[in-house]
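Hypothesis: this fold can be encoded by more than one sequence.
Test: take the structure tokens below, design a sequence, compare later.
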């Protein structure tokens, strides 16, 4: 089954879950949206982490934003 990777930009509050803010074909295409969302956080970013896969996680007191890669498998049609 062929797979591709999509990048999900998500945001939420600690212990209250989160939601998808956008999906992108590449990390580079997602970066402007990540920066725009980071500017909307109500307080300063207190922690930033980067994963080996290129993922980025921003934490601002009880709020968070993440950009993560997700493999998507698609069924072949004949």
């Amino acid at each position: 089954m062929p797979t591709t990777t999509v990048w999900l930009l998500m945001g939420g509050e600690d212990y209250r879950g989160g939601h998808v803010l956008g999906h992108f074909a590449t990390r580079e295409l997602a970066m402007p949206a990540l920066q725009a969302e980071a500017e909307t956080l109500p307080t300063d970013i207190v922690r930033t982490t980067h994963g080996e896969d290129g993922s980025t996680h921003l934490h601002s007191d009880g709020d968070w934003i993440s950009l993560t890669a997700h493999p998507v498998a698609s069924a072949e049609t004949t």
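The CA atoms of residues 49 and 57 lie 5 Å apart. DSSP finds one helix and five strands in the chain.
Hypothesis status: open.
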